[in-house]
Amino acid sequence: MLIKLDESYRPLVHKVRDDAGEWLSTKGTDQYRGGLDMSQVHANIDRDFDAFEFVGWKVAGQVVAMLAIIDPEAEFWTAEELAEPQTYISRFFVVEHGKGYGSALLRAVIDSARTQGKHWVRLNCWSTNTRLHEYYLQHGFQHVRTCDIPGRMSGALFQKDLRSS
Are the beta carbons of 144 and 158 closer than 8 angstroms? Predict the structure, then answer.
């Protein structure tokens, strides 16, 4: 079930982000590794939590996946793309991998965006995490481009056209 995460879920978001970093370190990717200032990472999560909506997928009374719906990151997208009706997702975390929780949450967010008349669901993800890229491709997203912005390890842009599916 799709739910809006209120303030009481903030500690869970932080914990699941930390757990994601540990899990990714076992998967052969450089995502979330190498010199990250964790106090800044958590400050960024708090900033997003204060400014934007976080939603979650609940199973058996527990939130098992979560993501933020934020404003598109202007440094990655063109003015034309920024002007289009879209839902922009970020901070997509799951509590346990391989259970389909992330897929269920992603489908629910896509359905919600379509109901709201949005044309796109867009995101920016880690540039070098090709397994993550494959995940989005398998869920009907298209790779738009990869941007190289100094100081950012993300920049692989994906979008799903809600008008054609």
Answer: yes
